[in-house]
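Support case: adenosine-5'-triphosphate complex. Customer-provided input:
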Amino acid sequence: MIAVSHLSKQFKTPVTKEGRFKGIRTLLSRDYRIKEAVSDISFSIEPGEFVGYIGPNGAGKSTTIKMLSGILHPSSGEVQIAGMNPHRERRQVARRLGVLFGQRTQLWWDLPVCDSFDILAAMYGLSSEAKANQLNQLVDLLDLSPFMDTPVRKLSLGQRMRADIVAALLHNPDILFLDEPTIGLDLIAKRNIREFLRSINLELGKTILLTTHDMDDIEQLCGRVIVINDGRLGFDGTIDGLRRRIGLPTLIRVTYRNAIMLHDLQTEDSSLKIISHEDRSLTVACNREQLTAMDALKRLEQLGEIEDVHMDEPDFEDVVHRVY
Ligand SMILES: Nc1ncnc2c1ncn2[C@@H]1O[C@H](COP(=O)(O)OP(=O)(O)OP(=O)(O)O)[C@@H](O)[C@H]1O
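Agent response - structure generated as follows:
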């Protein structure tokens, strides 16, 4: 559905001059600095996948999304969206693609929400029946009816984001690029938007590429995560795969029926490390790269009869910070 091959983007910016008339001298200067914002990135996304595209500030995420949606032309490499080139076949690609930039709205600031939808429907050449069908469904699902007649500038951030999601989906695209769709929202608004995105992915089979700094979005929604850092691809795989690669340990807390003696526990390798021990309870750090949770429990069972087990997976936010 989405194929990206050796994609790179360089930006050329004039070097700022110092001293008198520096503005004019910078403008006339032939000294340029080259910034490699995206560097030799390749990945492909299958229909119906929900993929997180993450990285620190300035990593090259928005630049990638802009090249995928045909807004920017790559310096080298190739992008195909549903077999089409988004730059050369921009109109055809636009029909298959919905794009949301959470930090900006694509609605008309002073117009009521419903007027913005009318303009967008006309731009996409939707029949009045197709528009009504889409709006009936989306307005209901995202609970937009109470403010359809309100000017966009008067909406709360959560209402505006829901209206922008409807705008991105109005022409019923099968691919969605979402750049920070939950930015600045409260917990309930985030939860509602996540539920909606999950349902359009699972029930309607939309292919979604999500860029966000909110690791809860990624953990709750994405089956796969692509990490970009300083323009380069750092990881492409499942969230569990990312956890395993970073190797932060899982903490296993075990309570035994009776007091235990520690000398029976095999800890000679680095796969299982004792963190604390108190009479009947034991906490160990298990390196899941080297030892499965089942095998760790088998070793722990040798110390006595287990009454209760509690496992703490490494926090995903910590995992991601290690990749950055
Ligand atoms: N038009 C431009 N001209 C020059 N440099 C640019 C331009 N657009 C982006 N850059 C630079 O390219 C790099 C990648 O920027 P980009 O906006 O893609 O990052 P990002 O991962 O989306 O960051 P953030 O999470 O902060 O939004 C940055 O160093 C940025 O300053």
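The first helix runs from residue 22 to 28.

Case will auto-close in a few days if no follow-up is received.
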